[in-house]
């Protein structure tokens, strides 16, 4: 009975802070998460998170308007902090030139896309009036943190190490997400080198919980069942981030060709690669990733690589070309169900309650 009461106490530490019912937070999956998925996640009692990624300010405001039409529950916007490693413009141009035939095939305009300025995105987020903002690839600088605190907006951030947890704690984040090496999508490192940022969740969680003190820590990586979430909470987490669990959902933006592949991916199918975005990510190597790897082109650090590939990815989704997408997913993604987001989150939430009775 003591264990169940302790888990409930940890859960309430997160849910009361965020104004949600279940200790579950959506992963900001660029290219997968939609306004509909975000709203459905929140309607199921968790915290939906919309990735702003490379959105322009106007796109952020339009998306927020759509989400608010679908839910009156709390949700968050996710921003990617500009990295210390600058884009390699020469490598970006070389990739752009090499992909001219593919753009012709897909009907994509031969124009180097621009990436939204972080300042523009941040101003749009402030204007959007949301209760929570999450950060990837680092924490907010003081000027941004002060602007959010002045509006009583809760800040969340993700880490791959205890050192990074200390940074986010100092930066004013009220929730810290510990991302294990099992997680799909981009790694969250920003203080440690990438080589030292591949810590498994079981090794990462306890020290991050310790250094975070009273700040609730949320586990990310292979959170595919109530058993996995409970195991993470037994090590001190206050909740879990759900990502791969939603890949095959009705609201997922992935084309059916990718959704159909997920069930056939085992725990050894993923690889770490920076070819798709310029940021090391856990993915399944698709045709375009393998072709670019064999071509031996230098990778332009994020967002350079993504700047070139984003229009191709967008066209590939529209044309159901899974071979031309970056297929980011975690090591337990094969367990992802085919259902709608609300049903998936509600089922997991109910199973957690049964564990804690």
TrEMBL record:
It comes from the Bacteria. InterPro entries: Aldolase_TIM, NMO. Keywords: Detoxification, Flavoprotein, FMN, Monooxygenase, Oxidoreductase. Its cofactor is FMN. The keyword Cell division does not apply. Belongs to the nitronate monooxygenase family. NMO class I subfamily. This is Propionate 3-nitronate monooxygenase.
